[in-house]
Structure formats: structure tokens, C-alpha cells
């Protein structure tokens, strides 16, 4: 896969996704992704984006100020 920002190659890896909802900060660790070898741009596949959206929706229901979630441990 090529980077959408600079066109360089990407490698499979893991990252931490942070979503700031204003009243709540949701941190999801160990999110699978592709990382650019040149500019460090992070690219998610469609299935990862869908899963992240589900995790964020679930975390919003808890209404905690900060939520830290491990992607690999959420079904």
C-alpha cells in the first residue's frame, strides 16, 4: 500500500488512536494500521475504521472523561 500523503511505501503496524469529543477523550491503543515509512502517516483499513467507530460509540455511552481501550481486547 502507498501513502496517500507522500506516495511512499507503508508497513503494517499498530498505533494509538485519540478521539476528542469535547467532554470526553477516548484513547484506543494497539489499533492495526499501515504506517508510512517516510512521513509516518497512519492509514486504517475500512474494517478497522468500522470497529473504531463501534468502540467510540460504546465508550460515549459510559460518559467518562477519559477512556483508554485496548483495540485487541474489544470484540
Task: Write up this protein.
It is a single chain. The chain is 23% helix and 40% strand. The longest helix is centred in the C-terminal third of the chain and has 17 residues, at 46-62. 11% of the residues are buried. Strands 1, 2, 3 and 4 form a four-stranded mixed β-sheet that branches. It has 75 residues and is α+β, with helices and mostly antiparallel strands. The chain starts with 9 loop residues before the first strand and ends in a 5-residue tail after the last strand. It has one helix at 46-62; strands spanning 10-20, 25-36, 42-43, 66-70.
Write the layout of secondary structure elements.
Elements: E1 10-20, E2 25-36, E3 42-43, H1 46-62, E4 66-70
Parallel strand pairs: 2-4
Antiparallel strand pairs: 1-2, 2-3
Provide the descriptors you would attach to this structure in a database record.
single chain; 75 residues; alpha+beta; 4-stranded mixed beta sheet; 1 helix; elongated
Main sheet properties: 4 strands, mixed
Integer-rounded radius of gyration: 13 Å
How far apart the termini lie comes to 27 Å
Briefly note the structural class of the backbone: alpha+beta
Low-confidence stretches: none
Beta fraction: 35-45%
- Approximate helicity band: 10-25%
Q: Tell how many strands the DSSP assignment holds.
A: 4
Average of per-residue pLDDT values: 92
Question: What is this structure, in a nutshell?
Answer:
The chain has about 80 residues and is of the alpha+beta class. Helices cover about 25% and strands about 40% of the residues.
Amino acid at each position: 500500500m502507498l501513502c496517500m500523503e507522500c506516495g511512499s511505501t507503508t508497513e503494517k503496524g499498530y498505533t494509538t488512536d485519540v478521539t476528542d469529543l469535547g467532554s470526553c477523550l477516548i484513547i484506543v491503543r494497539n489499533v492495526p494500521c499501515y504506517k508510512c515509512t517516510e512521513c509516518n502517516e497512519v492509514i486504517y483499513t475500512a474494517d478497522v475504521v468500522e470497529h473504531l467507530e463501534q468502540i467510540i460509540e460504546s465508550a460515549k455511552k459510559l460518559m467518562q472523561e477519559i477512556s483508554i481501550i485496548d483495540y485487541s481486547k474489544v470484540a
